[in-house]
Design goal:
single chain, 8 helices, alpha+beta, eight-stranded mixed sheet, 17 strands, binds 2,5-anhydro-1,6-di-O-phosphono-D-glucitol, binds manganese (II) ion, Fructose-1,6-Bisphosphatase, Chain A, domain 1, D-Maltodextrin-Binding Protein, domain 2
């Protein structure tokens, strides 16, 4: 029987109890604690803003052809440095690096692979709107010991052993799943520790709120045009009720709203990004978010298949994303399958 836990449960206590219950091993727990600690450092850097000299452009570009902000580069370095020495990881992959980063030879190599979007919502840094970090943990396929090949990372999202995101907002939150439920931890800034504040989050199955970048409307494919058109038609349309709209342009913030009060989020395919396959990256944005959302009772789909079942072909591969409240995602998917 579980002891009657009084008082706040820290991330360390939560992870230790998970391990005792058979979810994860000491290496995974160390990995997650190190990622959480690195995110505290990113929260500090983000929180300093102009006083820390962290705003503005880095003057460099990443492999995706995107201009890097100073905080993209700083956050990537914080995560890489924190994860180098623990002995739990075989390699890291990041939005900001073309190839996986091997664990330096000076340190032992472990059995896990870590992928991250070090700073999600970069366009919001300089305007003081919530940004975040997204991460995904996979096991290194068995039998390998030497250099990690990119192909070892190319596992479907169903293989993830843990995933999480941290939102650097009015408070700093860590949302985490180890594959049995999604849980929210709030950073106690004075004590410096993450405290469990919501266990087993459940996303409402129905919603009247959607999140999409409407400025791309004319470039979407026909099924998405029809679906959003029907939401906009409101009470007078086929859905028979009015819908509200939100778009933060930080996936972490939009997903966190959905985790909290339900909703549907989409970054669909459009004619401008068709050749790239979508906007959001499968391995370190769509997959971890889909795992978290599914573990909270929601759904995540490309319009053609369940995101977690997409067989990855590249580290920086992009996919269309439709995720959130289960019944609403099913509605949106129906427009695609009917087409
Ligand atoms: P990143 O800052 O890591 O490149 O990700 C930005 C993503 C995602 O967070 C957000 O939902 C989307 O891009 C916003 O795109 P638009 O600016 O096209 O609306
Ligand atoms: Mn991102
Ligand atoms: Mn990013």
């Amino acid at each position: 029987m579980k002891p009657d836990l009084r008082g706040p449960v820290s991330l360390t206590q939560y992870l230790t109890e998970e391990r005792r219950a058979g979810y994860g091993d000491t290496d995974l727990i160390q990995l997650l604690e190190i990622v959480a600690r690195a995110c505290k450092r990113i929260a500090v850097a983000t929180g300093k803003g102009a006083l820390g000299g962290v705003l503005g452009e880095a003057g460099t570009g990443n492999i995706q052809g995107e201009a890097q902000k100073k905080l993209d580069v700083i956050s990537n370095e914080i995560l890489l440095d924190a994860n180098a020495w623990g002995g739990h990881l075989a390699a890291c992959a990041s939005e900001e690096m073309e190839h996986p980063q091997q664990i330096p030879d000076a340190y032992p190599r472990g059995g896990y692979l870590l992928l991250f979007d070090p700073l999600d919502g970069s366009s919001n840094i300089d305007v003081n709107i919530s940004v975040g970090t997204i991460f995904s943990v996979l096991k290194r396929p068995g039998g390998h010991r030497g250099r990690v090949e990119t192909s070892e990372f190319l596992q479907p999202g169903t293989n993830q052993v843990a995933a999480g995101y941290v939102v650097y907002g009015s408070c700093t939150l860590l949302v985490l799943t180890l594959g049995h439920g999604t849980h929210v931890f709030t950073l106690d800034r004075e004590a410096g520790s993450f405290i469990l504040t919501r266990r087993d989050v459940q996303i409402p199955e129905d919603t009247s709120e959607f999140a999409i970048n409407m400025s791309n409307q004319r470039f979407w494919e026909a099924p998405m045009q029809r679906y959003i058109g029907d939401l906009l038609a409101g009470k007078e349309g086929p859905r028979g009720r009015d819908f509200n709209m939100r778009w933060v342009a930080s996936m972490v913030a939009d997903v966190h709203r959905i985790i909290t009060r339900g909703g549907i989020f989409s970054y669909p395919l459009d004619s401008k990004i068709k050749a790239k396959g979508g906007k959001l990256r499968l391995m370190y944005e769509a997959n971890p978010m889909s795992f978290i959302v599914e573990q909270a009772g929601g759904a995540a789909h490309t319009g053609r298949e369940r995101i977690l079942e997409v067989q990855p072909e590249g580290l920086h591969q992009r996919v269309p994303v439709i995720l959130g409240s289960k019944n609403e995602v099913a509605q949106a998917v129906r427009y695609h399958t009917d087409a």
